[in-house]
């Protein structure tokens, strides 16, 4: 039985670090979770739509977590121009995130039609920027589209864009379905796929009636979760970690309508060790969490940082905290409840970034 794992610090290719007090609480927790490279989502209020905003945001994050490499993205919207794409590329911005309109948190500025963005995609292809796709289409009762099939119904769009731009790197974010796994496998080497911690663990029964497991896209059928588990177990190199960790104050999770998002940042590697152990795939954890994503993106980390190691040990009674206070000085801001709060996850980090 494996009781200790040492691996390089991990890369999280999809994370929400927010702004203001929430950002100040969450950002230092990236490192606590064993992660040293974080790919940052732009759905702030207002969204990060240009290079200047992305660089200013990056400086704030770096001040809060100097050991972490932050890779920044822009929010795809009609305001994004070809010139801005070129400028972003020059400034080291890594990608552009597309949200379909209205499907999730802060997606009111999201897009409705991908073809109008083809000139942008072409410039991104030329400049080597990555297209990060939230792969769902909006629900439409008339067309029998709801959260359970919204991802599958999006897949033809993915195929269309990937075929039209064979040299554009595209990531289907937070895949949840067997159909998505099969599509990404079938498409070429320009298409990768991020997989979250929580989607390796949850199915629909776990979020129906449990607000803290509600996220977008929602967790689906058992056979869908099996497909995600199987593809990471197979060590497919185009499937890699992107947690989509998305903190929300408890009041907006447990309120009349729950915000979408699961918070995993403080314990990313312990959660993964538990899940990979359960699916008998601990030998695949390092590639999934540390190498495949960087390889797909063709990225390197801050010099001198690549060799940092994290050691986890298996232990009984490793309880996930009940919650994290958003501000140490202002209790009114409330708390964030992490994934698997109060549960024993059986693994803990004993040395980090050594
Ligand atoms: O569950 C989610 N939460 N999915 C998203 O796409 C957005 C995220 C958030 O920002 O809260
Ligand atoms: Zn996200």
UniProtKB/TrEMBL annotation:
Keyword Metal-binding belongs to the record: yes
GO cellular component: cytoplasm
Name used for this protein in its record: dihydroorotase
Enzyme class: hydrolase
GO molecular function: dihydroorotase activity; metal ion binding
EC annotation from Swiss-Prot or TrEMBL: 3.5.2.3
Pathway: Pyrimidine metabolism; UMP biosynthesis via de novo pathway; (S)-dihydroorotate from bicarbonate: step 3/3
Keyword Mitochondrion: no
Amidohydrolase-related domain sequence ranges: 50-178
PROSITE patterns: DIHYDROOROTASE_1 (PS00482), DIHYDROOROTASE_2 (PS00483)
Family that this chain belongs to: Belongs to the metallo-dependent hydrolases superfamily. DHOase family. Class II DHOase subfamily.
InterPro entries, A to Z: Amidohydro-rel, DHOdimr, Dihydroorotase_CS, Metal_Hydrolase
Keywords: Hydrolase, Metal-binding, Pyrimidine biosynthesis, Zinc
GO annotation, biological process: 'de novo' pyrimidine nucleobase biosynthetic process; 'de novo' UMP biosynthetic process
